[in-house]
Amino acid sequence: MDTKANILLIYTGGTIGMIKDFETGTLRNFNFKDLLKHIPELKLLDCTIATTSFKQPIDSSNMNPGYWADIATIIEERYEDFDGFVVLHGSDTMSYTASALSFMLENLSKPVVFTGSQLPIGDLRTDAKENLITSIQIAALREKGHSKIAEVCLYFEYKLYRANRTTKINAEHFEAFASLNYPALIESGVNLVINNEALYRPNRRKKLRVHKAMESNILLVKMFPGIDETTISHLFSYPEIKGLVLETYGSGNVTNEQWFISALKRLIAKGIPVINVTQCSGGSVAMGMYETSIELKRMGVISAKDCTTEAAIAKLMYLLGQKVSPKSFKTIFETSLRGEMI
């Protein structure tokens, strides 16, 4: 029989870790060691819970690759001591961080569940308790001596998603996240309903490898009708640029005016990878389907397929950080590494 799972709760900041001062109405971080005082229901869970926190919890709008490395380091250092990890994070950039961690943690064979909330724990109508309790419960799931979930996930409002398939879609509703190109891994109702077919299958014989070098000198450019030559030439001439993510129309289309095509060709000639990701919430890039994307395919623009923008950015940062050679960059990017694309 399996022993109780040990779960580490990592607090980075965000609404979930705040309580309201009822006299002033302002929000403040509470001491995570006092968690049980705020959520006594955690005592009912069949696992042991330890907590750790960023020394200075941050608003997720201030999240950056340095903090991603801090989260990865905590998991790396405590990996053998715990069966699962729950990362509490502000919802605004949660999909970016969780996508990045999926690439940084190679050969992960334990759950890393990101969660947060739209309302603070101390609020009467908070979603924080359910999100936190169920995330811990999911992280503690065991089967045949192993963790049932073995990937980086995101849990919010009764659904567990593969993290690198998520995007934040709503700033006000409790159902803040969506995964339009990949089904939910678990749905929480009266029981936890697990979609076994959708779960990532790791090679458990391989040892965890943690990659902390992420290249952030990249550019994200969203196409819009009226984008002009002056703007593009200014952006593309940034001397430190190491990679470009183009958020294109529909299935990967851009203007095929010569000035734009030439600007892209100049970048690619310098060995700078150009990633084509759709700005649609769901669906996939399929270069060559329309005349406005044939030229992209010919010049060697890389397809992000059905990736989210968040995952495409994280993957680009990761592969550049790994110093992947320009010759094999396209092939590796267009291959699913952590279940982030078809």
Describe this structure in words.
By secondary structure, the chain is an alpha/beta fold. It has two domains: 5-210, L-asparaginase, N-terminal domain (Rossmann fold), CATH 3.40.50; 218-333, Rossmann fold (3-Layer(aba) Sandwich). It contains nine helices and 20 strands. The strands form six sheets. Strands 4-1-5-7-10-11-14-15 form an eight-stranded mixed beta sheet, with helices on both faces. It has a four-stranded parallel beta sheet with strand order 17-18-19-20. Strands 2-3 form a two-stranded antiparallel ribbon. The chain is globular and about 65 Å long. It starts with a strand and ends in a 9-residue tail after the last helix.
Topology:
Blueprint lengths: L4 E7 L6 E3 L6 E3 L5 H4 L8 E7 L11 H14 L5 E5 L5 H11 E2 L5 E4 L12 H12 L2 E2 L2 E2 L4 E5 L2 E4 L4 E2 L8 E2 L7 E3 L3 E3 L14 E2 L7 E5 L6 H8 L6 E6 L9 H12 L4 E5 L12 H9 L2 E2 L5 H13 L4 H8 L9
Parallel strand pairs: 1-4, 1-5, 5-7, 7-10, 17-18, 18-19, 19-20
Antiparallel strand pairs: 2-3, 6-16, 8-9, 10-11, 11-14, 12-13, 14-15
Read across the widest sheet, the strand sequence of neighbours is 4-1-5-7-10-11-14-15
Tell me what the CATH architecture of the largest domain is. Answer: 3-Layer(aba) Sandwich
Number of domains: 2
From the 3D structure, determine the CATH topology of the largest domain: Rossmann fold
Count of extended strands: 20
- The residue fraction in helices comes out at 25-40%
Q: What is the ordering of alpha helices and beta strands?
A: EEEHEHEHEEHEEEEEEEEEEHEHEHEHH
Report strand %.
15-25%
| Tally of alpha and pi helices | 9
Structural class: alpha/beta
CATH C-level class of the largest domain is Alpha Beta
| The CATH superfamily title of the largest domain | L-asparaginase, N-terminal domain
Mean of pLDDT: 94
What is the general shape? globular
